[in-house]
Amino acid sequence: MDPDKDCARGLAQLEGYLLWNAEVEEARRQADRFADELPWLTTAQREEVERVYIADRVTTSRAMLWRISVRAVQLRGEYDARYRELRARCVAVGVVLVCVVGGTCTAVALLAR
Question: How far is 31 from 56, CA to CA, in rounded Å?
Answer without folding.
Answer: 10
